[in-house]
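User: I'm new to structure prediction. If I give you an amino acid sequence, what do you actually give back? Let's try with this one:
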Amino acid sequence: MLNFAAGPPPLSGQTLLQQATGSMKVVSPFGWVAQVERAALAAECPWHMNWSNTSPSTRQALLEQLPDWYAFATSGSTGQPRSWYRSKAQLLQEVRLLAKLLKAERSSGMISFVPFHHLYGFLNTLLLPLWIGLPVWYYPLGQSLPSIASLPLSHPLFVALPSGLQSILHARRQLSRAREITVVHSAATLPDAGEQLLLRLPKATIVELFGSTETGAVAHRRHRGGLNPYWHLLEDVDVTRETAREISLECSGERLAYGPDGVRLNRWQFDDLVCYFGQRHFIWLGRVSRMVKVNGRRVYLDDLERQLRAVMPCADLACFPVRDKIRGEGYRLSVVPLPGQSLALDTVWQVCREHLAPGVLPLSLALQPSIDRGLLEKVRFVGGLP
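Assistant: Good question. You get back a string of structure tokens that encode the predicted 3D arrangement of the chain. For your 386 residues, that looks like this:
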């Protein structure tokens, strides 16, 4: 949830204008700060904001009217949610980096599936189109994407979460006419839909962002025609050590967040293991909290989930670490059936046996109506191994 640390200043008499066009709300850019205060409303319905009709001087004036401080809460995927504070200068510095990284000035408009309650959405859905002067269309998760052909976009820039990639993939025929397609993705491991998107849309480039609420974006990798395993540190980020051995990612930089005490973090250690290759490049190995050792074999649950999603006939699934009296550690697999369809546990077991090695099968299975996920689709923290 995004909260203002201080109320936004007045907009010199400019007012918020909204008009309903079907289910789409058209938001006047001149009321955009007021619209941020209505973040809950904006997250529940599609909306459109057109910055291409405003002059650079007007957009700069609006950026200067941003409140000096913002508070962003963590998603709850690695612990209890906690608020971290960012200054306006930090936000604008990151937007500048993102615009350069995404070559956003070449885009004709943006389509976002990411609400701006979270830092990732606030930067990419709200501030980036303002910075460049682009029209942006927002569609909430779970709602179908309308005909892209109706949008005047020869080079769309998508802001995506994992499920958003599937929506883009379904629209590939409409997108085949585009001159270029850029997709920015963050918040979770790139799903199979991302790889399929690269294979079926040769004009598509996926730019993944690596970071957290505490740090902002710290690294990126670019995919075109296939997957690229190497992450590149952003230009204003430093790491404590670069080694070819497995190590926890720890970084420093001026964009690290401020705590409630007003003190900025000096450095931040991620819950991620990496291995460096060359200067300022690394390969991501997995998250410590999402790793279990089954019969002495290290298993990353994120990798298992990705493998199972490609073959399991379900709406959602997740793996949760658990203790085992015999093997020491293991995991429970929770599966959500497709809407209106039944799914037997025997079927789930059969799929697991056919596609997983015998030594890494789940300790138990559960069918449930839904999986508790945060705003950015990460499984909420349920504690480590008991």
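You can read the tokens as a compact description of the fold. Here is one thing that stands out. The chain has a mean pLDDT of 81.
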